[in-house]
Amino acid sequence: MQKNPSKKYRPFPPISLPDRQWPNRVLSRAPIWCSVDLRDGNQALAVPMNVSQKLELFQTLVKIGFKEIEVGFPSASNTEFAFNRRLIEENRAPDDVWLQVLVQAREDLIERTVESLVGAKKAIIHLYNSTSPAQRRVVFGKSEKEIIEVAVRGAQWIKVRLPRLKGTEIMLQYSPESFSATEVEFAKEISEAVMDVWQPTPQHKMILNLPDTVEVAMPNVYADQIEWICRNIKTRSSLIISLHTHNDRCTGVAATELGLLAGADRVEGTLFGNGERTGNLDIVTVALNLYMHGIDPELDFSNLNSIIEVYERCTGMTVPPRQPYAGELVFTAFSGSHQDAIRKGLNEWKENSREHWDVPYLTIDPADIGREYREVIRVNSQSGKGGVAYLLESEFGIELPKDMQREFGPIANDEVDKLGREVSGMELKQMFWREYVERNLPWHLLSFDTESKNGIVKCRARIIYKGGIPHEITGEGNGPLAALVNGLCSITVVQQYVGARFEISNYSEHALGSGEGAAAIAYIQIKTAHGKTRWGAGVDTNIELASVRAVLSALNRL
Ligand code: KIV
Ligand code: ZN
After folding, report:
1. Is the CB of 175 under 6 A from ligand 1?
2. Closest of 364, 358, 395 to residue 377, by C-alpha
3. Does 375 have pLDDT greater than 50?
């Protein structure tokens, strides 16, 4: 890197717009959306999509609700041309969907493009030429006047061919490519020259697309450029002003949102931001950003996972795990404090005590886009007891009592810390089983029977201590557990082990699963004469035995 970057690079000159209006506006409705996945997105793939992949993605775009879809560059290759023909001849586009095609200002290419559209119901012909000083100088070696002539000739070649498309509803679109790096005065001049040819009216508008082909400035500068054009271009009411941002400075979404505040009507972009270099605008993000402010985006992402699946299959691209809204980790909290806050927020929402969504760390309800609450919490060494308990309950129906969560949480965290990675729900269950359910040393139960008379329960148990000979224990109480505790506390070895005696200080149980053969789990906390407490857990198809095992588990953990 340069020690002094100003020697090599210079700041982008600001637009003079002292009374800019856009900072005081708010967005209140969805723009017109145009997907350019099948053209700009496709152009940027290492292996461009074949016809059947393009067809599958086209159908998905229609299902999402796009009414304008740039389907390709039909003059660029036979595949592109054939795709267009199939869409039209097989009647694949619904009546309200516009097929948009891109073309350069060259007569042979325009001829082929018009040919590709014969028989279409609705079509947008999109003409472009590049206008920035660098493009004029380096690529074309043309003056401003000559660049305007290129655009005007292209517009005329299209206009004279329109009678060939009788029966097709046509809309015309012009893009001064590299608009954001072009002087606004020149962008206005060239756009007005094209308008002079096409003669749009408020009843039959043309689309003026103003691309941020390469992001060269902050998004507020793009917004100024858009507002400047909206205010200075002639017959604004005959135009649909369209945005087309790329993401070189990682502000494609911000530039689009500010561009909409600045007066644009329409947005071009792709699913998940696929496109040249750092990508096109991610339309999913802009649409769901509107949604999270209560604005209907008029695009349906309620099953985002299936859209991701089609997108990844057709393009060969992957959606990164932290992609806004769509990424696998977006609705996952790793830190304990986040998990606790999310659980409280979700509970408040479930209890219906709030009118509007206000859950900490979750900008929208994941369920609205087909994601699951299950994904909200995972467990690593930073997770709190809440996360651990949530996972055991949501995946295995293990409902740890609150106080037991406080005991097991740190135990699980220590184990996860040693592993140095995130653990699955199954691993967490195994930790719980090892720590509680499978603890049968030093005390191991061989058998347990009870008989009850006049409300008094008598028990008989055979228990081994430290692998020695079995102790025959008898006891009585007002229930099987009371009888067991009474029996245990009557033998010397237990008295020495616990320090005189112990009692049951907490108890709960529930079924694990349903049906006759379902096991039950019991959670028991014991307290010794010295005030020491320990939790234990036992599992058995017989609930009485599950409780007895839980007592021994607690004893084994003293
Ligand atoms: O990024 C761009 O400028 C384009 C144009 C062809 C609209 O894709
Ligand atoms: Zn582009």
Report:
1. yes
2. 395
3. no
β-pairing verdict for 169-177 and 519-528: unpaired
In this predicted model, what pLDDT tens digit does every residue of 479-489 receive, in sequence order? 999 999 999 99
The token duo for 180 is 């954001």
Residue 212 CB less than 6 A away from ligand 1: no
Q: Which two tokens stand for residue 476?
A: 């009585």
Ligand 1 neighbour 177 (Cβ under 6 A) = yes
Q: Which atom of ligand 1 is nearest to the CA of 214?
A: 1
- Total residue length of the chain: 558
Distance CA 326, CA 369 (A): 9
pLDDT of residue 361: 93
pLDDT for residue 376: 47
Report which residue type is found at 361. Y
Distance 227 CA to ligand 2 centre (A): 20
- 71 SS3 class: strand
Contact 512, 432 (CB under 8 A): no
- Contact (Cβ atoms closer than 8 angstroms) between residue 527 and residue 412: no
245-287 pLDDT tens trace:
999 999 999 999 999 999 999 999 999 999 999 999 999 999 9
Q: How far is residue 470's CA from residue 483's CA, in Å, rounded to a whole number?
A: 18
pLDDT for res 505: 96
CA distance 348 to 513: 27
Nearest to 437 by CA among 471, 484, 468, 396: 396
Is the pLDDT at 9 greater than 90? The verdict is yes
Place of tokens 């014991």: 526
In 164-250, which ranges are continuous DSSP H helix? 184-198, 219-232
> At residue 288, does pLDDT exceed 60?
yes
Compute the distance between CA of residue 488 and CA of residue 227 in angstroms, rounded to an integer: 84
β-partners of residue 474 are 460
Q: What is the mean pLDDT of residues 86-103?
A: 98
Question: Cα–Cα distance between 186 and 193 in angstroms, integer?
Answer: 11
Whether residue 383 has pLDDT greater than 50: yes
Backbone torsions φ then ψ of 389, nearest 5 degrees: -65, -40
Cα 245 to averaged position of ligand 2 atoms, centre (Å): 7
Work out which ligand 1 atom sits closest to the CA atom of 102.
6
| Entry pTM | 0.75
Best substitution site from 128, 139, 178, 256 to test ligand 1's pocket, by max atoms within 8 Å of Cβ? 128
The pLDDT, as a whole number, for residue 382 is 66
Helix%, strand%, coil% for the chain, nearest 5? 45, 20, 35
Strand order in the sheet with 443-453: 443-453, 456-465, 471-477
Alpha-carbon span 55 to 64, nearest angstrom:
14
Ligand number nearest to the C-alpha of 275: 2
CA 187 to centroid of ligand 1, rounded, Å: 14
What's the average model confidence in pLDDT over 419-447? 92
Count CA atoms within 13 Å of residue 557 on its CB side.
Answer: 28
Amino acid identity at 370: G
User: How far is Cα 556 from Cα 558, in angstroms, rounded to an integer?
Assistant: 6
Q: Is 431 helix (H, G, I), strand (E, B) or coil?
A: helix
